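cron nightly-structures :: item 1 of 1
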Amino acid sequence: WISTSGGRWSLAPCTATWKKHNYESAAEAIQAVRDNKLHAFIWDSAVLEFEASQKCDLVTTGGLFFRSGFGIGMRKDSPWKQNVSLAILSSHENGFMEDLDKTWVRYQECDSRSNAPATLTFENMAGVFMLVAGGIAAGIFLIFIEIAYKRHKDAR
């Protein structure tokens, strides 16, 4: 129980939901998404992009929550620290890391398809523009009726 300014809330509904959607591994959660038992799954973007490229019924959407890199742990006084740091930086600068990403993470087994959301075109929005144009026309028509009524009333 959580006590809040005079009222008490139970964590039981939240706990039940958490337990229902708790999976032992990312592979189980991804399979649950594929089986429509789970609507979405938040995990490491590289893993999800790889899974979506291999399983055509999956798609990644939205942007990254935050971007973080991986590091290599070494002793503070390691003689290799400078050389490893420079090698990693060089790999990023010369495109080697991007090539690895394209080869292993973004390799497409599926037909080429876009993960980007569909954009709205004029054809998609034509109904909205027609509705606005109709509203403007109705407004102009009502203004003329109001002017005519006012003139008729003043003429009396």
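cron nightly-structures :: done
The helical segments are 12-20, 26-34, 45-54, 81-93, 96-105, 122-155.
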